[in-house]
Amino acid sequence: TQDTPLVLIPGKIHPRVVERLKAAHTVLQVPVEEVASLDEATRRRIRAMAFSYGGGKSGELIAALPALEIIANFGVGYDGVDVKAAAERGIIVTNTPDVLDDEVADTTIALLLNTARQFYQAESWLRAGHWQAEGPFALSPLSLRGRHVGLYGLGRIGREIASRLEPFKVKISYHTRTPRQDVSYGYAPSLLELARTVDTLICIVPKTPETHKAINAEVLQALGPKGIFISVGRGWSVDEEALISALKTGTIAGAGLDVFYSEPHVPAELLTFPNVSLLPHVASASVDTRNAMADLVVDNILGWLENRKALTPVPETPAR
Ligand code: NDP
């Protein structure tokens, strides 16, 4: 009927989200660019939206949906949602915290080890038959031994990365805007100070105006010639030109990247460095973890539509 609420899925999302929502509600799945041209009666029935990062269109979506009450974002990073526009309208935005922390932290450790020890190149050497034909793979110039790791960001995921680093017997420091009372790692009052203190830097901050290209030439210079840089937060936080130049000149020793400034574009030059490990934004991408994220998206929407209770609202748009 006219009053039955609709749940909108603009564009593509994890199939489990579609399946579970369809079991409970009427779902409308249309390409993002077609939402604004839906007839008004339909747009007025849309009360919930399950959203997977589509890049920059969420403000227009919000404007086109006068009855929208909740946007459930697939992912813990909700930089793809215009939270300001949502907050002004009293629309709740939810994300998927906690359920992916372990997976992302595991990936970060793997990326760090791959970067330092060049396991990708070693395996490629074996697969290409070089081991038998030419003998052992070259010794890795870098190692995790004796390193001092700095975390830029020590939130849900940063904490899990740090606790995994402890048994690796490395020193650990961090920078966040507010020092944490519940950890004994060294605190650096700025990112630059952190880069000066450590020889391994992991970026796991959200995409915000303040974190834009925070990893710049000065920070990389401070990290120094033994430096390894690992990027798992958002590509937004890295000045990729400065990084490429730092790798080329030996200003730092290596880098491991899961995220890029303008995904899925990866600067061609990065592919040419032997001391760089590259992943296509897969930190949380296991079947189990993505299922858990899908469930949290759905449970937020069902919780809201059925009990007026969103499970994991973001701080900018607290549940009423
Ligand atoms: P949290 O909100 O729990 O933690 C964010 C951390 O960053 C906090 O320690 C916060 O401390 C710090 N921070 C935020 N802004 C700044 C700043 N301007 N300067 C210094 N520190 C800052 O987020 P999560 O740990 O759950 O996730 C972090 C990000 O990781 C997500 O937003 C997402 O973008 C990214 N991510 C990437 C994935 C991938 O697939 N590669 C998967 C999952 C997440 P304080 O507020 O004190 O500054």
Structural description of this entry:
The chain is of the alpha/beta class and 320 residues long. It has helices at residues 15-24, 40-45, 58-64, 83-88, 101-117, 119-127, 130-134, 156-165, 191-197, 217-223, 240-248, 287-307; strands at 6-10, 26-30, 46-52, 70-74, 92-94, 148-152, 171-175, 186-187, 200-203, 228-231, 254-257, 276-278. Helices cover 36% and strands 16% of the residues. A seven-stranded parallel sheet has the order 8-7-6-9-10-11-12, sandwiched between helices. Strands 2-1-3-4-5 form a five-stranded parallel sheet. NADPH dihydro-nicotinamide-adenine-dinucleotide phosphate binds at residues 76-77, 97, 100, 104, 153-158, 175-178, 204-208, 210-211, 232-234, 258-259, 281, 283-284.
Topology:
Blueprint: E1 6-10, H1 15-24, E2 26-30, H2 40-45, E3 46-52, H3 58-64, E4 70-74, H4 83-88, E5 92-94, H5 101-117, H6 119-127, H7 130-134, E6 148-152, H8 156-165, E7 171-175, E8 186-187, H9 191-197, E9 200-203, H10 217-223, E10 228-231, H11 240-248, E11 254-257, E12 276-278, H12 287-307
Parallel strand pairs: 1-2, 1-3, 3-4, 4-5, 6-7, 6-9, 7-8, 9-10, 10-11, 11-12
Helix pairs in contact: 1-12, 5-8, 9-10
Bound molecules: NADPH dihydro-nicotinamide-adenine-dinucleotide phosphate (NDP).
The site of NADPH dihydro-nicotinamide-adenine-dinucleotide phosphate has 30 residues, from helix 8.
